[in-house]
Design brief:
Helix content: 25-40%
Number of strands: 7
CATH architecture: 3-Layer(aba) Sandwich
Strand content: 15-25%
Shape: globular
Distance between the termini: 57 Å
Number of domains: 1
CATH topology: Rossmann fold
Number of helices: 8
Largest sheet: 5 strands, parallel
């Protein structure tokens, strides 16, 4: 009788016999060496996921673009080593990358959101169940829980999937249509709390925007958005 070897098992064996190399410079020994990590964190600056331009320091979101969040924070542009690490963590379950991504989140998201810590709830954007089983982990849920723990916030699965449509490889219009029916609120909303919606990347924004609409229709008044990375601005 055949069986499938989970990603986590395969990755564990690879980690044992094949040491990591830095995704930035190629140095042997870690997935992201201290020099490359320091360089990335020192250059971290919030950017707008819509226009892709850098947000002025001290600003909570882009002044020029309309977005249904009180605040919005982005780790960096989705390029180079960061794009590679997000892809490997998400699709290949390379758990050694997790801490690097968390450090970027810690740097990108301010500790002070203007309300008491006990009134902040981190909400991971739900991953399709089939994908969680295939990959061996729910990457957004893990990152959300660890961000919340680090800051003394709560983490709740406020949203759940209402439809398991796969968006990879679809057009922007198809993504938007699918996302409209993708989520539903699974828990009672407390209007006194600030909800921080977290996902890994912003491609067209369809998923985050649809999830935000669902939460606001359920009564969320103070909604914050967070993603690890977004695309770079188009060259003129």
């Amino acid at each position: 009788m055949g069986f499938d070897v989970k990603n986590t098992t395969k990755v564990g064996l690879l980690d044992l016999f094949c040491p990591h190399i830095c995704r930035g410079c190629g140095a042997l020994g870690s997935v992201f060496c201290e020099c490359c990590k320091k360089y990335m964190l020192e250059r971290q600056q919030n950017v707008c996921p819509i226009c892709k331009q850098k947000v002025e320091k001290g600003e909570e979101k882009c002044r020029e673009c309309e977005i249904p969040f009180r605040r919005f924070y982005v780790g960096s542009y989705r390029e180079g080593a960061l794009a590679k690490m997000i892809r490997e963590y998400k699709y290949q379950s390379v758990r050694a990358i997790e801490q690097v991504l968390l450090e970027l989140l810690f740097k990108a998201v301010p500790e002070d959101l203007g309300v008491e810590a006990e009134r902040i709830v981190v909400v991971p954007l739900p991953t399709i169940g089939k994908h969680v089983r295939q990959r061996g982990l729910d990457h957004t849920k893990i990152l959300a829980k660890k961000l919340a723990k680090r800051r003394g916030w709560q983490c709740e699965m406020v949203l759940e999937r209402a439809a398991d449509t796969v968006q990879v490889g679809t057009s922007a219009a198809e993504r938007a249509k699918q996302a409209e029916q993708a989520y539903r609120v699974a828990r009672k909303i407390d209007v006194e709390k600030t909800y921080l919606l977290l996902d890994d990347v912003w491609t067209t924004g369809a998923s985050m925007l649809a999830a935000a609409k669902t939460m606001q229709e359920a009564g969320v008044e103070n909604l914050v958005g967070v993603i690890l990375a977004t695309g770079k601005p188009l060259e003129e």
